[in-house]
Write a structure and sequence with these properties.
By secondary structure, the protein is α+β, with helices and mostly antiparallel strands. The chain contains three helices and three strands. Helix 2 runs antiparallel to helix 3. The radius of gyration is 13 Å and the shape is globular. The chain starts with a strand and ends with a helix.
Amino acid sequence: MSKQHYFFKLIPPRPTFMQDITDEERRLMDKHRRYFQEHFAAGRVLLFGPVMASGGAFGLGVRKLIPKRRLASLGKATHRSVQG
C-alpha cells in the first residue's frame, strides 16, 4: 500500500489577517505553531507553515494518514487553538 497523506488548508478569519494581526491573535497563532511543531517533531506532520499567496495568505499542513477518529480530534484541536 502506498503512503497516504492529508492536506490541511487553514483559512484565516479575514483576508488581512497577516497584515493586521492583533497581539491576542499572535499569541494564539504561536500556540497553534507550537502544537503543530510537536506533531512535526514526532514525525506525524510532514510540513506546515504559512503560505503567502497572491489570493491571500493561509496555513498549510501535510499530515500522515491516521485513523479518522484521530484526524477529527486533530482538526478540532487546531480549530480550538485558533479560536481560543
